[in-house]
Design a protein that fits this description.
elongated, alpha/beta, six-stranded parallel β-sheet, 25 helices, Rossmann fold, five-stranded parallel β-sheet, 3 domains
Length: about 700
């Protein structure tokens, strides 16, 4: 590609004007950052980003993450001008543009594929959903980890398939959010040299100048995280940008931070536009003034001059097409020489599991003493992961407690000198653990992260985004209630289950014994488009006798009849529970049955799966005309009204627990078979009287 600074400037100004025209037409959005950072994106994409517009999901492409999601028009403009093709629901390229000019004209409008913040799956070329500041940073760490794992697992001396780089554009807001510290610390420790963050230091936020609340020496901070740092003092200095990108790619032992000083708004050294910083349209006069400054026709909107798209095609497009062509030739050779690994990779790309992935799942015999569900979960996890080589995960420094350590031969630890390890060590960094797990899932691995349920509060944003993006992240939460005992209210989760159940698209599973744990993991692995939370106990639970009670396969429908009235009688009282409270209901059921009361126990490990069943199944499990009901769960009562009915009993938590042994806590808060039995008798008597 011939050097042509004037044409390069035309491309940059096209990104700027498309961005401000879109925001102006929508009368909503953030024009300032796209206008200021257009040179960064142009030079990165045109000369460094390895990306084939015709095959936007090419596995060895470089990833570009716009962590400053409010600057979405920067990305949409680039996707349009670079001619990125849209993919269909199966990930296959089509002839349609990912972002057409008409799409840009409908920026932030209903049903457009140019929403206010970039959304994964909605717009081809968007690698992850961003908007909540800092999340893109955490995602990019997971993507870089995935890249290193792919290299270690698949690359062979005669066929190096993977060497992609992850670029992330971030700003002052990202750097202020706490997750940036966790993400940078983890990436520096892991020496992820395939990761580059480009920090737009424009020193402006919504309230005004960053001096109001922020005076960090960011470069010193990142050197302390063991990052390489580069400073570009003027965003419009093309030579400095080019040199910075080249230098970042040459660093082999640490991630790189490129600090870029920009002037928000026009991108002109003398102009700092406040409305552009505050998420407002510039207004007709300001737009006209900006266009005059660029030498742009003031009477034209959404104008793409001749030669702009061709310039992208001869740079980014031609370079990406050649790189992908070379890669495909390597893949052909790879398939011949390494067929087993090639088959693994094909499964990953198809979002499938090995045919025999569940062949070694254990069956747990009946045991009155039983085991904690965290213990049985650890056994199930190891049985699955041993057969799914791309299952990778770990904990926030708690794997001895969450039982998520992979122990089979060859599992190993993922560290800077062993990127092929399967055990991830996130340190005490729950927030970035969740975001990195999403980044791994976005890279088509099957990842999990674990901690205590109480600390799900620290990682709520990435859990929510996993559901928004429909990625199969798995979050394993143990110590799920007051059952953890002596640690007391600070560690006893009460309201967390309700908060997680409130997330659309998130499958929450709280199994009641070891065999329900087996089915819980089966459910979590079976769906490549839904994240799951697996909620487990610290205390042992009886393993139910499945020759006497129903099969745990009922977990697959979310709720099922575990024990029913004898001789096909219609139940007179329903006992509903999840998790550790299921055993108390079974014991109460036995006593009620012995007295001739037709009782039914319903295990409800997953409300959201149950609610997806048809009405006939739901009514068969919970007959609407059976009003005598007792719902039992050692958590807040949020949501139980729909199952208890107006007059049903709810044995739940209404305080924050206490510090004491679990046996004492059960009695104090009523999670005993005696209390369940008493409430069932009251319900039975109430309905009989009525």
């Amino acid at each position: 590609m011939q050097n042509n600074p004037s044409l390069d400037k035309l491309c940059i100004d096209t990104i700027r004007t498309l961005s401000m025209d879109a925001v102006q037409k929508a009368n909503s959005g953030h024009p300032g950052t796209p206008m200021a950072l257009a040179p960064v994106v142009y030079h990165l994409w045109q000369n460094h980003l390895r990306y084939d517009p015709d095959e936007p999901l090419w596995p060895n492409r470089d990833r570009f993450v716009l962590s400053v999601g409010h600057a979405s028009m920067l990305l949409y403009s680039a996707l349009h001008l670079a001619g990125i093709k849209a993919v269909d629901d199966n990930g296959k390229p089509t002839d349609r543009p990912a972002v057409s000019l008409d799409d840009i004209k409908h920026f932030r409008q209903l049903d457009s594929n140019t929403p206010g913040h970039p959304e994964y799956r909605m717009t081809t070329g968007v690698e992850t959903t961003t908007g909540p500041l800092g999340q893109g940073l955490g995602n990019s760490v997971g993507m870089a980890m995935a890249g290193r794992w792919y290299e270690s697992h698949f690359n062979q001396p005669d066929a190096p398939l993977f060497d992609y780089h992850v670029y992330t554009l971030c700003g002052d807001g990202d750097m202020m959010e706490g997750i940036s510290h966790e993400a940078a610390s983890l990436a520096g420790h892991l020496q992820l040299s395939n990761l580059t963050w480009i920090y737009d230091s424009n020193r402006v936020t919504i309230e005004g100048h960053t001096d109001l609340a922020y005076s960090d020496d960011v470069e010193t901070r990142f050197r302390g995280y063991h990052w390489h740092t580069i400073h570009v003092k003027d965003v419009n200095d093309a030579a400095a940008l080019e040199a910075a990108f080249t230098e970042a790619k040459s660093v082999t032992d640490k991630p790189t931070l490129i600090v870029v000083n920009s002037i928000i708004g026009w991108g002109a050294p003398h102009k700092q536009d406040s409305s552009a910083a505050h998420g407002e349209a510039l207004g007709d006069e300001e737009v006209a003034a900006a266009k005059r400054f660029y030498g742009w026709p003031e009477d034209k909107t959404f104008y793409v001059p001749d030669g702009v798209m061709a310039r992208f095609a001869e740079g980014m497009g031609a370079r990406g097409k050649a790189a992908r062509s070379d890669w495909l030739a390597k893949l052909d050779t790879y398939r011949q020489k390494h067929p087993e690994l090639a088959n693994e990779f094909a499964k990953i790309e198809a979002h499938e599991l090995p045919d025999d992935w569940d062949a070694d799942l254990p069956t747990f015999p009946a045991d009155a003493k039983g085991v904690a569900t965290r213990e049985s979960s650890g056994k199930v996890l190891n049985a699955i992961a041993a057969r799914v080589p791309w299952m990778i995960g770990g904990s926030a420094d708690l794997s001895p407690s969450t039982k998520t350590n992979l122990k089979f031969e060859g599992a190993g630890s993922f560290e800077h000198d062993s990127y092929g390890g399967r055990n991830l060590h996130f340190g005490i960094r729950e927030h970035v653990m969740g975001a990195a797990v999403n980044g791994l899932a976005l890279s088509n691995l099957r990842p999990y992260g674990s901690t205590f349920l109480i600390f799900s509060d620290y990682m709520k944003p990435p859990i929510r985004l996993s559901a928004v993006m429909e990625v199969p992240s798995i979050f394993v939460f143990t110590h799920d209630s007051i059952g953890l005992g002596e640690d007391g209210p600070t560690h006893q989760s009460i309201e967390q289950l309700g908060a997680l159940r409130g997330l659309p698209g998130l499958t929450v599973l709280r199994p009641g014994d070891a065999n329900e744990v087996v089915e819980t993991w089966r459910v979590a692995l079976a769906n490549p488009r839904h994240p799951s939370c697996i909620v487990l106990t610290r205390q042992p639970l009886p393993t139910l006798d499945r020759s006497k009670y129903a099969s745990a396969e009922g977990v697959r429908k979310g709720a099922y009849i575990l024990a029913d009235a004898a001789d096909g009688k219609k139940p007179q009282v329903l006992l509903l529970a999840t998790g550790s409270e299921l055993a108390a209901c079974v014991e109460a059921y036995e006593k009620l049955t012995g007295e001739g009361i037709a009782a039914r126990v319903v295990s409800m490990p997953s409300w959201d799966i149950f609610e997806k069943q048809d009405d006939a199944y739901k009514d068969a499990v919970l007959p609407p005309d059976v009003e005598a009901r007792v719902c039992v769960e050692a958590a807040a009562e949020i949501g139980w009204d729909r199952y208890a009915g107006r007059y049903g009993a709810k044995i739940v938590m209404r305080t924050f627990g206490a510090s004491a042994p679990w046996s004492d806590l059960k009695r104090r808060f009523g999670f005993t078979q005696e209390h369940v039995y008493d409430e069932a008798k009251k319900q039975f008597a109430r309905v009989q009287k009525k």
